[in-house]
Amino acid sequence: MAKKPLCKLIEQVSEEIEKLEADRHPKFFKHETEGRKRLATLLLELNDLEEDEAKIYKLKFTKTNIK
């Protein structure tokens, strides 16, 4: 999975949520399912990015405290 900037990911998550809300009708069930899959993928990317940033912060904090 390619990494995306945090603000871009958050923007995409918001757009997917808006699309899901607009598609909440029985005749759009297929679109809603696809939208949920896209949203789940974006949330996983967001989680991975947050974990990476937490590791970087922890590494910087550890280096600062060692000096």
UniProtKB/TrEMBL annotation:
This is Uncharacterized protein. It comes from candidate division CPR1 bacterium GW2011_GWA2_42_17.
